[in-house]
UniProtKB/TrEMBL annotation:
Family: Belongs to the RelE toxin family.
Keywords: Toxin-antitoxin system
Alphabetical list of SUPFAM superfamilies matching this protein: RelE-like
InterPro entries in UniProt: RelE/ParE_toxin, RelE/ParE_toxin_dom_sf
Protein's UniProt name: Addiction module toxin RelE
Domain of life according to the entry: Bacteria
Length: 83
């Protein structure tokens, strides 16, 4: 089963601002998430219910909706300010 990736407009804008090389790295990471969204790291504490995956030096923060087979990307941010 393949998950559908949803990027809200604010996340799309963040993605467009990235350097081309990093943007491609993030896009490849998103393609991989569509195949296996559980490959990321499950977050805890105030970020419970969210997942994170590396697209060095950035992090993709997302939620998984298993019932609808959807990955909702919440944020794409540099690793130092992602959380």
């Amino acid at each position: 089963m393949q998950y559908r990736i949803i990027l809200p407009k604010s996340v799309q804008k963040d993605l467009e601002k990235l350097d081309k090389k990093i943007r491609m790295r993030v896009i490849i990471t998103l393609q991989e998430l569509s195949k296996d969204p559980f490959a990321g790291k499950k977050l805890q504490g105030e970020h419970a219910g969210q997942w994170s995956v590396r697209a060095w030096p950035y992090r993709v923060i997302y939620r998984i909706n298993k019932g609808e087979l959807v990955v909702l990307v919440i944020r794409i941010a540099h690793r130092q300010g992602a959380y």
